[in-house]
User: Fold these one by one.
Assistant:
Number 1:
Amino acid sequence: MIRLQKVQALQSIYLLLLCLGLFLLTGCAQMTGSGTGGQQGNYDTGFVPATSGNYDSRDTAIVISKNIEASTITFKNMELGKFYTLNYDGATAYYDKYGQALSLEQVRVGEIVSVDFLHRAKRLDSLRLSSDVFAFDWVEHFAMETGSREIKLNNEIYRMAQDVIVLTENGIGDRMDINEADVLRVSGHDHLIESIVVERGHGYLRLSNDSFFIGGFLEIDHSKIYQVSEEMLISVPVGTYEVTISNAGCSGTETITVKGNEEYEWDVSEWQGEAKYGVLVFTVSPSNAKVYIDGRRADTDTEQELTYGIHQMVVVAEGYQTISKYIRVSEEYSNMNITMEWGSGGSNTTSENAVSENNVSGNNVSGNTVSGNTVSGNTSSGNTASQGTPSDRTPVSASGYKVTIEGPEGVEVYKDGTYIGLAPVSFPKEEGSYIIILRKNGCQTRSYTITVDDSAKDISYSFSALLPIN
């Protein structure tokens, strides 16, 4: 009997210990899963599963940069203008504007996109190119409109947003960093430009031993024409191409390679010598058209002898569109076929007194080497051959006022390739767009595009200090 009681007592102790163990295990489990206040819940470790469709926010944004090493993409929110960076992973999806899959490499900076992401975790779930935007790739010919944020592309006027993003090889830039020697990629909505990417930048061309060629012409890549001046420094596209210099019947051509933000110096002394001449035979329609070469009336009924090189040509006839362009003489004997187009309204006259050396505009050869090519109806209006002066703008003088480049002090200042002095330095104020180049030995050369209005007041610019060459 006593033995049975002991067995029952031991069983009771074992049962008590078992219940106590179960209680302790249950309490620990509750503490492990509890949140604040001792209530049961899940502990937030910050872990986000890499699964598609896991997001809580959506934005329309511009891609600013991609960091492959850090697996991040930086965006600019288009509504608020704020910049933020999101992480991407193997489950992040990328789509074009039609919903077709893309790779990350196909997503370019400057793109306007729709992004889905987890806000707290800063994880990018998906990115899709916006479908309601315009995008122009590889824009080589454009004109910055004077006194406004307008730019002319494909013969249409577009307006740049107040906070337009400009992306250069050095990161985020400014509208003034855009040079008409650059090649751009442009994106936006309707006719409002919101993103500009400099696809191909520019470097600089300096001439040495060029005194013989001053007053002559410099041709860049068969497309741009500049009049040679003393100590000129020209912003030119990055790349490898031909440059030709000519004056007084002497000319020379060389292939150069220009690197971004670097100067190329071309010694042109070997090209000076005895003048060469070419004979031109004109065929003009209508027959009563008047042809002027370098400001002088040419008798198109007889052969015309011209020195080798670039010449300015103006063709006028009542009722027809005036032709103004550059021609290049490079052969001993050539035919020049000119066909004028009837002007709108039936009348477009130009008096002989209005035709002078400076009436030919637009630094553009457009392949008009005189070697049997036909010239027809190419209308333009009076600007001299100078960098950054599009043919559809005529400078308007605001006499008595000036533009001053205040700083950085002591740097060389070039206006449209022509040296004007050390900063601070001024030049007469005329409405138009100008390329301002700043240079100093031992520093990186910089260029800016400025637009000058016709207001009756002086204006001034002060730029950032030039960075030293590494």
Note: The chain has five domains: 57-129, 134-200, 202-271, 277-376, 397-462.
Number 2:
Amino acid sequence: MGKLTIANLKKTLYYLRRNGLQNTWNAARERLSATEPYSFRPLSEEEKKTLREQARECIRNWSEAGKEVPSFSILVPAYRTNPTFLKDLVVSVQEQAYPLWELLLLDASGDESVYAALKDICKETHLPMFSERLVGDEDDAVNVGSIRYVRLAKNDGISENTNAGIPYARGRYVGLLDHDDVLTPDALLEMAKAIRGEKETLEAPLLVYSDEDKWDGAGQYYERNRKEDFNFDLLLSNNYICHFLVMERELFCELRLRKEFDGAQDYDLVLRAVAEMMVRGLSPEQAICHVPKVLYHWRCHGGSTAENPQSKLYAYEAGKRALQDFADGQGWNAKAVDLKHVGFYRLNYVGDESSVLGNRHDLGAVGGKLISQRVLVGGRMARDGSIYYEGLKEGFSGYLHRGVLTQDAEAVDLRCICVAKEFWPLFEKVVGVPYVTRRLFIQDEKKNQKSFEVEIFDAETLPKDAEVKKLSLLFCKALREQGKRIMWDPEFMVQS
């Protein structure tokens, strides 16, 4: 069952004002019926020791093989940070099994509070004493487990305060950590293993991210975010990548964070990183790596976005602007709009062929969902034909709202598909019938009115004995072999 807390009640009231009674009733029913169990067990001292031995072995093996050994600069902008939060953060970094890291604390407090707290933490935990760093320091090697303090001249916002650490960062990769969150002891080891892992088309990935969960600051861990491997259109729905993220230093230094997107600076950074990869002729699916383990605990308290989305509503507006900026940069005729849940968006496309394809030349087809007896029975499919979100009730949004978000798909159901005109001959060759269309009206659930209409394949032209799932998988495989993405858009729906 979902957690019943004051914060959740506040979220419900805000949702009611945004979306009305029926949508709020559906959301409350879904949240209270959630049954997915989750628990996180902190590592024992013996397990931490084993991890440290594993890290030393990895470093030795990479060095002997002549491979570059990854190193990390972790940037933490601080502003009058609660000393308890600061201690938790510092200790979590100090406990990293992987030793090649430096922690840069970028202090814009304008007073001695963070400096004094850090001195006490180092003394209490027997950490090596840190030193203040100056621009122009010629030492470009990452020391083992060094904590470096940078006093900023002014508080210029989270993006510029973070960027102020760029001249000091010496690691091969830059990691971003909020001043009230913590890492798991294996975080950097898992990142290093992913960097030196199985990517065949690149020497190393340009960006690596992990799963995360929420943490109450004591012993309760909840709401694990089980993320997908890189999914282009899911990223265009929300910043599902979020924490923990490390980026190749040269790319981070080139892009930097942008002050005008404060609050959603991480989302803007990832979107621009994806755009830069495509400019370089790289596939983001190959240049971005996902570690499917919880490596980051997002602390929840009254002022945090994790616990109280209304505390930073400006961040969600900044996220929408970042998405619009990305779409404009791609030359797409599209408009970023809010969905019912804060921090989630969609791009509405306009084009000659279809309002769901627009001028997205990377798309070969868009599929919708099939509903029968008010539950989802078809739509996005995996390569084995299994159906994502199968059984999701109409009006429900699914795990972390993914059941209502646009996303890349291996395959979609032919009974609710819109295919780019250039691939109609391929459709006929694979499926065995001409691509004949019918009109489908799309209803905006938030406003309870017709939003737009699309031309989809008329499934009535299929033979009565057609193996729809098999044909769907075959055609979508043929599209992917043409180098095209397939998008699943749950906003258009067919009754099965």
Note: The first helix runs from residue 6 to 33.
Number 3:
Amino acid sequence: MDVKVYKNYVNGKWVEPENSGYTDVDNPSTGKVIAKVPLSTKAETDRAIDIAHEAFKTWSQTPVPRRAKPLFKLRDLLMENEEEISRILVEEMGKSLPDARAEMKRCFENIEVACGMPMLQQGDKLIGSSYGIDGEVLRLPMGVFSVVAPFNFPAMVPFWFIPYAIATGNTVVVKPSKQVPGTMIKITEYIDKIGLPPGVFNIVNGDRHVADAFIENPKVKGFSLVGSTNVCKIVAEKCAKTNTRFQAMGAAKNHLVAMPDAKVDDVVRNMLTSCFGCAGQRCMASSVLVAVGDNMYNTICDKFTEEAKTVVVADPLDPKYSEEGNLMGPVISKKAFDFVNKMIDVGVKEGAKLLMDGRGIKVPGNENGYFIGPTIFADVKEGMEIHKTEIFGPVVCIMKADNLDHAIGIINRHQYGNGASIYTQNGYWARKFKLEAESGMIGVNIGIPAPVAFLPFGGMKDSQYADIKAQGKAVINFYTQDKIITERFWPEEG
């Protein structure tokens, strides 16, 4: 198989990078190198920003309906080529084909929302704010915005930002994940066909040096990142010093609470998808099951472990399993593989009970892949490293709570607050959970409480460093600057 060598996309053209070298892109199912991605320099990143800055001068003056028009075309092109992009995504990231297709559908949804910009970007007017005086709020584009994409959702996450930035009249420079750049490269091939003026959309491949250049360049008005919480803290500090807007979505440890009245069979199937989809490598993956009461705890331990045996661990592109709904692929890299295995060892040493051990699994024909099977710990206590740490792999902790207040306390004492769900038929319990659980996204009988594109996406506590969440109507405020006008006109004399 030929190894692809990727380029950057700047000023409406594919350009050879003046880079400091290349890094390999692996297929995590096989361990084989499938592509090489350039490590672009600060200088070429700054040049891309300069080009986007120049393009902004004209693009920001383009009428809003004309800014939205290319996005309609992009949505149709991506839908027509969904399968091709999904397979590239699977090859370089390792999630299942059904999961990749679901990710692409979220891209379509975000484009559709951004196509409504003629309504979403409208300002406000108050006639008679005082005697003979009117007040007005204008929502104006600002300039160049940058995006740093994560490996786990290389298509969806950039589309929390890109269509909104473009439709509001800004220009964009994106750094794809260096581990999974091919998905955004392929999407950019279709963006190239929709008629955007040169410089409105650009991609610069690379590592942290590109991201640092985004933050340090004064022409960049806003920076969006999905990454680790430690990186988010650094981003927040740097952006605060330069007065650069930022959205930094960090780590998670999502809890699912099963109440005594929960419909157990439905709940266990729902939990399984939440915990082991994408091999646990999504910010909304649940990795802690909190069972309320002895009976529910014992039931969850038994039934969830039994259901986990149905998970098929395989190469997601193996024709025998490619349409399997219960398929789990590899983790992203050897580094991730080693870390997950290390955390399983830590859990054993901490005294948690290993109900199911995913270490040492081998997939025939893919012996060099980064596969780890479903792993389940019971008797997990607060304070254990396996409960505190975002493992980002198929490792699940089961905890017991005495009552709902105890379960909510476990969630609220945790440093992360991305998502949490409750399984119950009791309206009082559900309402109490919705109001008191300190997580940005709450589910009721939903294992993955990720909101649709019309609603904002984001967490609380150390899971998010930003005032404005991603996607939906709320993100318009990130991409526009309010200008407030107070005006009156005196009557002409005579």
Note: The first strand starts at residue 4 and ends at 5.
Number 4:
Amino acid sequence: MQKKKKTKINRGAGGKKTLSLSDKSLRYICLAFLLLLLFFYIRGFLYYRNHFHRNTYINGVSMKGKTVEEAERYFNEDFASHDIKLVEKERTETIRAREVVEEISTNGQVQKIFNRLHAWNWFTDLFGKEKYTVTLEADYDEARLRTIVNGLDCFKPSNVTEPRDAHIVPGKKAYKIVPEVIGNQVDKEGLLKSLETAISQNITKIDLEKEDLYVLPRVYAKDKAIKKALKEANKYALSQVIYDFNRKTETVDYALFKDWIVFSEDLKVSVDEDKISEYILGLAAKYNTMGRAHHFKTSSGKIIRIDDGDYGWKVDTKKEKKQLASDIQSGKKISRKPFYSYEAMGYYSKVDDIGNSYVEVDIRSQKLWLYINGRCKMRSAVVTGDVKRHYDTEKGVYSITYKESPSTLTGVNSNGSAYSSDVKYWMPFNGNQGLHDAPWRMTFGGSEYEGNGSHGCVNCPVKTAKVLYDNVKAGFPVVIY
């Protein structure tokens, strides 16, 4: 009698019967799952042998599922995708690739990237991004690109606010900083270079501000250099120079010189030399008496006008220009006389700067007077230049150049011969013309100067010359009429 095979029955909750799978059945299921995975793997392998992996990005564009030909075509033929958006401060503008680009080529770079991929590990590239960059060889019309850029709204004059540096200007009582203006002026050449790069690298967006394509100020109000310059300029603003022109004064202060202060590109502070010169020349024109007509009251009581001579006040413009610049830069209050290259004996007056101490020579009467502090100290007959031989004594107002005792006078006669005369008292006032003693003469005054006059000097008796020599000095006025 055969034994019957028993099947194990498990009773679960509620007393129902359940059957458990055998190990063999489980193995079948696992094998089927593995075969399914293998199927999908092989299918993926076969697919990705000719297609880019899903995580591949070239120039920021996903190449998922594209063949090399499709990827090449994307870069080579899809002009619209190469349009470049310009993000500006006030607007957005677009450069249409089709208007500029004539042909695009990757030059085999896409194929090289694909060759680096391995089809059998396609499943490991399902997530993340593998980024690649290719340089597109875009054949574009440079002239056309420039024309399009020139026509952008951002370059229209009505839309452009140029940047302006922070700068220092004079205020009412001191200098102040005017803040910078940022503006919206685009760097055209910089933009053209960025566009050329964008075309070659398939960049479709350029943010002008992020790419520093705006022309910016070089100097900002917060910069240390401009603050330092302001401090120095305001030191100058404290300066005051009071010129003493004897009976009058001239004041140079901030109100006058505020426009004379200049700032270099590197914000160095200085005084404008041209404006200093202009001011000093104005002072000289106002106060110089040298070269001006002198109104003189003669010993006879007649007031005459004398136009010639080199006597008078003359501002030394070269020294004064340098000194005034230094005074302004000092930041101090200064009162002083100006520098003179020539000085008169009397106080300034447009009518008379000769004063009341002078030598007076009347050619017609052949007379000489010496006045000291308004009183006639001496009167004498003299002999002036020989008018017949054209050795005239020059008329005008002069000053004693120097005095010398003794001295030897030399020169040339009208016939070409040389002469040499020893004198004890020599007081030149106009080049080689001067006052001196003439011990060789027996007669003075009268008509001696008409045919027997001097070579241009004022010949005096020895006693007269001595009194003159004892009372005059360099700068002493000599009036000849």
Note: Residues 56-207 form one domain.
